[in-house]
Amino acid sequence: MYDINKVREDFPILSRTVYDRPLVYLDNAATTQKPRVVVESIMEEYYNVNANVHRGVHYLSQQATDLHEASRETVRRFINARSTSEIIFTRGTTESINLVASSYCDAFMNEGDEVIVSVMEHHSNIVPWQLQATRKGIVIRVIPMDDRGELMLDEYEKLFNEKTRMVSVAHVSNVLGTVNPVKEMARIAHAHGVPFMLDGAQSAPHFAVDMQQLDCDFFALSGHKLYGPTGVGVLYGKEEWLDRLPPYQGGGEMIDNVSFEKTTFERLPFKFEAGTPDYVATNGLAKAIDYVTALGMDNIEKHERELTKYVMEKMKNIDGMAVFGTSEHKDAVISFLVGNIHHLDMGTLLDRLGIAVRTGHHCAQPLMHRLGIQGTVRASFALYNTKDEIDALIAGIERVSRMF
Ligand code: PMP
């Protein structure tokens, strides 16, 4: 295991105060804080290396290109993809899913064809498909869940028919914390000859993800939720699929040859990377990945699971506590409401105690409808959170509860 106090020193922001109280940062599902090595790599690259990648013959451009391409290899290793051709840099999970929805629909979906998503999706795995529904008349089918927040696999199987062309689901729910049985779900999709995409925004930061073991066809993640910079993310795609998809955007970097009569495209992964990439951020992401890899993803998972177990136990003792998402397969996200206290009131008052949580629908309004609520308070954990911070959260909730 790692030394949590030493680890916390790597994240300068964690020692600041808000309202003269120590910051207790429990909004990690929205974004994580950055270790010094990430911030320093950004500064260092802008101060000493900065030049556009892939184009220059000069020294700095080659150095920046080497860093950028080494980052791709770091990502490949981290998620155990077969080749760097399968690693596309994007702006984040949202762009990764939009890319697949757009290119895949262009190539493989016609009016009436169906995509399967689940009731617990983030809007970024609903709206891109709806945009395609408007453009191409595709149909969205929804996997329901039970009251513990687990997807109903028997209902999932029933959704397949001869029109099904794609399954796209969250690996981990950003509201319930449910870790979905995605290996089994991929197997079922493949048995029907349908590709399987995972929204890994809330899984990749919390436990080791292995593309070859999961056998998903596409996987999306966001750098900023993985202790890396904002504005960079990854789309993994099996080469056999990426090869068959048309480009998402056009421009520089993604072409082989351009004339007004005919343009040919670059090989993978560049075919999907039009324009200047955020090469400083990709390098920052690689530094974040090196950082979590050195701590050990298994250690991070163990630490966060312990925190989750601890908070779930403590919450049982709070009067009127309702926790949404009680699956055994639960990751470091706790959504809750206490009695009739509005989520926004709870969040605002916790904030005054220095405790940062998120309130509202968490970009999952259909899930809120399913739960019959407007929103929740959400506490989400990262590798640097402590049991003391959870004690502060519990004491804070009790204090706020007494005020109502
Ligand atoms: N999917 C899930 C499950 C998420 O939690 C989030 C971020 N809240 C996203 C997608 C979107 O990620 P981003 O805004 O970084 O593109």
Automatic annotation (TrEMBL):
Its job: Catalyzes the removal of elemental sulfur and selenium atoms from L-cysteine, L-cystine, L-selenocysteine, and L-selenocystine to produce L-alanine.
Cofactor annotation: pyridoxal 5'-phosphate
InterPro entries: Aminotrans_V_dom (IPR000192), Aminotrans_V_PyrdxlP_BS (IPR020578), Cys_dSase_SufS (IPR010970), Cysteine_dSase (IPR016454), PyrdxlP-dep_Trfase (IPR015424), PyrdxlP-dep_Trfase_major (IPR015421), PyrdxlP-dep_Trfase_small (IPR015422)
SUPFAM superfamilies: PLP-dependent transferases
Keywords: Pyridoxal phosphate, Transferase
E.C. number(s) listed in UniProt: 2.8.1.7
Family: Belongs to the class-V pyridoxal-phosphate-dependent aminotransferase family. Csd subfamily.
Source domain of life: Bacteria
Ranges for domain Aminotransferase class V: 24-393
Recorded catalytic activity of this chain's protein: (sulfur carrier)-H + L-cysteine = (sulfur carrier)-SH + L-alanine
Protein name (record): Cysteine desulfurase
